[in-house]
Amino acid sequence: MSRPHLINDHRYTTDYAGIDPAKALCQFEDCQKPKDQHIPIPDQFEWFDHCEVNLIESTFNDDSVCFAAWTSTKGDEADHGARKGLINRLMKDRHGTPFEHMFIQFQVTAPIFVWREHHRHRIGFSYNEESARYRTMRPRFYVPPRYRPMVQIDGTKAMDYVMVEADDETYDRFSKGLKLISQSNYHDYERALEIGVVREVARMCLPVNLMSTCVVSTNARALMNFLSLRVKDADAAYPSNPQWEINQVALEYERHFERLAPLTYAAFIANGRVAP
Ligand SMILES: Cc1cc2nc3c(=O)[nH]c(=O)nc-3n(C[C@H](O)[C@H](O)[C@H](O)COP(=O)(O)OP(=O)(O)OC[C@H]3O[C@@H](n4cnc5c(N)ncnc54)[C@H](O)[C@@H]3O)c2cc1C
Question: Taking a C-beta distance cutoff of 8 angstroms, is the pair 249, 108 a contact?
Answer without folding.
Answer: yes
